[in-house]
Amino acid sequence: MADSAYQARYIAAARLLWDASQGDPQSIPQDYCEHLHHQYIDGDISLVPLISRFEYSEGLEDYEWEEAIEMLGRVNPNDWPEITDIESVSIDDLLKMNDDDDESSLNYVEDNLGTAEKVEKVLIECISDVFGDRVSKIRSEKGYYANPKNKFLQADDGTFAGTFEYDGNRYLFEVAPQESGWLCTYRLHHKDVDKIPPLLDEDTTDVNDYNRSVRNRGWR
Asked: Going by C-beta distance under 8 Å and a sequence separation of 6 or more, which residues neighbour residue 86?
């Protein structure tokens, strides 16, 4: 399966298995989990087949469960033990690995999931208008949904920043407030630059740094 096809399907497939387990992930048949296995073209792997080894947490929100799945959806195998050596996965501990904020000091609306969906929809519309085609999967730079821990992708100055996907590639973006309106900037993620085929007349001695190129446009 192509990387883009896997990324488009694995969360929905994992959710189907999770819902069917009714809070008992160990009841998920292992051969079902194996269908979630994937190795990316760059050597990264998916650890989503570990879903049957999740330690269930009753207070888990939907967005937190999907964060955990996305964290395991693409990892460097050198950073993890062999999948057969991992006996269990604590979702709470997994989420804490990237929890740098003190949530007790933050005041957010109660409907976090609804807010995350609204943020994603608005950013998709804004970026698509500038990009010139429909984009998808608004996430933080680390790959998480908009949520209280990342302040719904918004910095103190009002700028929204994160990533989006288009045609199987990931882009970094910023949507910043300006006096004349909002300014949207974006660039291809450095991990996806090598996936773009060279132009037929491209000079092999080209020294341009494509990682740093930015396209931008403003709107009112």
From this structure: 47, 50, 53, 80
